[in-house]
Design brief:
This protein is mostly helical. It has a domain of 102 residues: LemA-like domain (de novo design (two linked rop proteins), Up-down Bundle), CATH 1.20.1440. Helices cover 80% and strands 0% of the residues. The longest helix has 57 residues. The chain starts with a helix and ends in an 8-residue tail after the last helix.
């Protein structure tokens, strides 16, 4: 009789332990999904700001159609990549968009009257703020992915993760080596 009680207690503890690990994995997976949603919100905000920025600039920059087209196409590709769901594809499309925006903002430097326009300055500030939010959201996402992936790989949770097909999440990484390097500043 005492053996049965001990056996039931051990089985009960094992079940509680097992359920706790499973629930922790589900919570971490949902945290990764939430972090990705936060990135998605900021990318949507960025995509919504770009047409306003471009339209404001068009009035001043008559000869820069190539730049406008590049930004518009990069925005379109980034929005379409968002439908694929692949972190890698979205990361690459967003990196391309960042490059186009950087070229666009460099071109703006040649138009002093545009740089003084209050609407353009407000939109540019909103875009800068959004870029900062995107960077923060990417960092939070990668932190959550690291915690989730660690939990999937560590014993004993790796056993539960394997039983219920929990899969590792992808980090949001920069693929372009040029973007990893600090910009070179020269005063000569």
């Amino acid at each position: 009789m005492i053996f049965v009680v001990i056996l039931l207690a051990v089985v009960g503890i094992f079940i509680i332990f097992f359920v706790g690990i499973y629930n922790r994995l589900v919570g971490l997976r949902n945290r990764v999904k939430n972090s990705w949603s936060q990135i998605d919100v900021q990318l949507k905000r960025r995509h919504d700001l770009i047409p306003n920025l471009v339209e404001t600039a068009k009035g001043f920059m008559k000869h820069e159609n190539e730049t406008f087209v590049a930004v518009t196409e990069a925005r379109s590709k980034a929005m379409n990549a968002g439908n694929s769901g692949s972190v890698k594809e979205i990361g690459q499309a967003e990196a391309d968009l960042s490059g186009s925006l950087a070229k666009f903002l460099l071109t703006v430097e040649n138009y002093p009257e545009l740089k003084a326009n209050q609407n353009f300055l407000a939109l540019q500030e909103e875009l800068t703020s959004t870029e900062n939010r995107i960077a923060f959201s990417r960092q939070a996402y990668n932190d959550d992915v690291m915690m989730f992936n660690n939990k999937i790989e560590m014993f004993p949770s790796n056993i539960v993760a394997g039983m219920f097909n929990f899969e590792k999440s992808e980090f949001f990484e920069i693929e372009n080596k040029d973007e990893r390097e600090a910009p070179k500043v020269s005063f000569s």
